[in-house]
Amino acid sequence: MSITVQNVSKHFGSFHAIDNVNLEIKRGSLVALLGPSGSGKSTLLRMIAGLEPPDSGQIYLTGENATHQSVQERHIGFVFQHYALFKHMSIRKNIAFAMEIRKVPKGSISRRVDELLELVQLTGLGDRYPSQLSGGQRQRVALARALAVQPKVLLLDEPFGALDAKVRKELRSWLH
Predict the structure, then answer these.
(1) Of the N and C termini of the chain, which has fewer Cβ atoms inside 10 Å?
(2) β-bridge partners, 154
(3) CA pair distance 56, 137, nearest whole angstrom
């Protein structure tokens, strides 16, 4: 899926988080947004995902105007900078959440969750809760949850910060 951002702006009161940004990402690309804290990277990702509406401008996904599409219509996976895991749900339930909402058959959900737990090297930890995991483990759960519904695009907001070098290298290779 290609992503095109045209003349997008976002303000929070008098603060200009994003000001007239243009960006084109071709299908199959792996792109990193770099900039200092507060430069609007997370805000731009949230707008592409449909979590935050732009004040002006357009967002296109595969040539189709998605500016006013819902999050669900966009088919984008998002890994938040601070994980955003459900504290009251087990790791298994966190990963399964979006599939359950979409009414995926239970057997398929169970198989997919097992596959993702293995991928992020958390096999055997599915019955634990986020508070029982390290920061790196919680980050891997967030990645597994984003991958669960097999999104067309995966947006990652500082996804590898809490991972050790070996896991970071393996996940980067797998994601690419």
Answers:
(1) C
(2) 77
(3) 38
